[in-house]
Amino acid sequence: MVQVTNDAKGYHLDFTRRDIEGTKIALLPGDPFRVPEVATAIQEIYGGVVKELAWNREFRTFLCSFDTISIVVTSTGIGGPSASIAIEELAMVGIDTFIRVGTTGAIQEHIAIGDVIITAGSVRLDGASTHYAPIEYPAVAHYEIVNALIAGAEAAAITYHVGVTASSDTFYPGQERYDSFSHYVSAKFRGSLNEWRILHVLNFEMESSTLLTLTASMGLRGGCVSGVLCNRVSDERITEDTVRAGEGNAIAVAVASLRNLLD
Predict the structure, then answer these.
(1) What residues contact 247, with CB distance under 8 A and at least 6 apart?
(2) Between these two residues, 167 and 236, which has the higher pLDDT value?
């Protein structure tokens, strides 16, 4: 793996290897405004000091330091291309464990708002991951991350589901949404939501296939936990309350999972 020198800044992330103090684990929300929320949740449980390292474009990074351990929280923006940049540049400065802390829409009726979905593997509906491995290569989570997230959900007493996620490059046609400007979904995706449901896919989101393909193919550890904001089958409405429930529970599970990864 390519590693940058202690004083060389990542082109996009804008911090150095020295800045992250030997950190090996990164939590990856999409939204830069969610980064301080994740960092604060870490501090509330583990104590220590939180500081902002950089904010460039969609990439915002906080460092959480406690005892002799530190955790990086970096936002990836939306979708695979920007997520791949964050993963690449974090790996270059020594990160070897990546956990996406996201939000999602469930597509199975039994999944409720506020539940979390722990992705075991992803349907690769993205393009970014194909720049790293052929489409036949599976986008799978590392078993240690899956186990840690399950333990985190149980410790936090949050309902969780483990299974397959459909990970799309687009929010509208790729997830078979018709409430777009054109109201048009290309033939490739018409009927896809029901097909994924029949195949027991749990949810749609937009980054896990890139994250899991990159980490697995690079010999790194990757995982994904997403909080459910809506159920596409029963009620597609997204409100402030559903966002608060989904985001909060995903953060709680990811932060609780650190105990099992830091042992």
Answers:
(1) 34, 37, 103, 227, 229
(2) 167
For the stretch 130-133, contacts whose Cβ atoms lie closer than 8 Å and that sit 24 or more positions apart, written own/partner, are 131/84, 132/84, 132/213, 132/214, 132/217, 132/218, 133/213, 133/217
Between vectors from CA 210 to CA 171 and to CA 116, what angle results, nearest 5°? 65
Long-range contacts of 1-7 (CB under 8 A, 24+ apart): 1/91, 1/92, 1/218, 1/219, 2/92, 3/92, 3/93, 3/94, 4/92, 4/93
223 is a domain residue: yes
| 145 inside domain | yes
Kindly state the tokens that stand for 145.
């991350």
Number of folded domains that form the chain: 1
> Token pair of 19, please?
């800045």
Q: 186-209: per-residue pLDDT in tens?
A: 999 999 999 999 999 999 999 999
Question: Within 10 Å of residue 239's Cβ, how many Cβ atoms?
Answer: 11
Question: Does residue 8 belong to any structural domain of this protein?
Answer: no
Residues noted as catalytic: 12, 89, 177, 232
For residue 119, give its domain range.
18-262
Reported confidence tier of residue 8, pLDDT bands at 50, 70, 90:
confident
Is residue 68, in this structure, part of any structural domain at all? yes
What is the per-residue pLDDT for 9? 87
